[in-house]
Amino acid sequence: SGFVPFLQIAEEEHKLLVGTSPVDGRIRVFFRTAEARDTVRAHLEPILAEMSERAAAASMTLKEWKSNHREVGDEEREAALCDMRLKCSPASISEMTSLSHANHVTTTIYGLEVPERLLWEAYVTRQDISHPPDWETGRDSEPAFMDLNLHAARDGSLPLVVIWQIDTDNPLNPRGLLMAHDDNEHGVMPVVSDVDAFLIGSRGMAPGPHLPTDQVELVKWSLSNIEGVLADPKPQGWTKRWLEVLKREMAAGYHPEMPPLGFGDPRSYDIMAKAVSKLSMS
Questions:
Q1: CA distances from 40 to 31, 111, 114, 188, 269 (A)
Q2: Percentage helix, strand, coil, to 5, in the chain?
């Protein structure tokens, strides 16, 4: 298990396959030093101003087109629609501080809350996102995983999902951004990919309680879709094939709500809840 990179794509063409952030989406990014935060803010402010100007001009163009005040060609209208994706509301950057706990030492860290669209524009759209030597993640470029990270960061549930910049030399490095949690008790801590308990042994334990009925139906749904994937072999790996299933099913209106610690029978869920509590400071 390792840290989870915020950036889940590394191919230029995949930038266009990631969903557009909501106009009011906000995201928090934390840095080890105030100097790093100030460097990033100085870089972001002119980009935000440019984005706001282009979005305002695009809005005017589309209003003129809709009201027939002037003729707007297809290319100009298409460009205006693209620039509307640069609009941020509010178009502002704010500073904050939090705490980081490492090796039994508590330090102050420095953050920015910025429009999600601004973060994407500055760290992804305008940068080379390919992996240079020593920054390889070992992961395939996957737009669906990038969408998952963005959704997690804007979810708003606790603990709050934020971004942590691990690169102390270049705070504008998109590959140095890690997924992290920020809560009152532990401060900002990078998260790691999940640790799955595949087998828990027991002896002399009475069976039950049973898996909830809705989760039994979910297991049946999973098996049915697994059979569908196996019955239609393709060169893509399993993860990509399963993401296609989830995308298709979500478009059809199927999106079961996942409990905070995932699915499972009540006893297994309780075991994991206690493990999370005990290991929360590790």
A1: 10, 10, 11, 19, 42
A2: 45, 15, 40
The H-assigned helical ranges of 163-234 are: 213-230
Task: Quote the number of domains for the chain.
Answer: 2
Q: For 223-273, how does the pLDDT look when each residue is reduced to its tens digit (9 = 90+)?
A: 999 999 999 999 988 888 998 999 899 889 998 888 888 898 898 899 888
Q: Give residue 168's identity as a one-letter amino acid code.
A: T
Q: What is the pTM of this model?
A: 0.82
Domain presence at residue 151: yes
DSSP H or E stretch at residue 74: helix 74-83
- Reference 32, options 105, 111, 102; nearest CA is 111
Is 199 inside a domain boundary? Answer: no
| 51/163 same-domain check | yes
Q: Do the domain assignments include residue 229?
A: yes
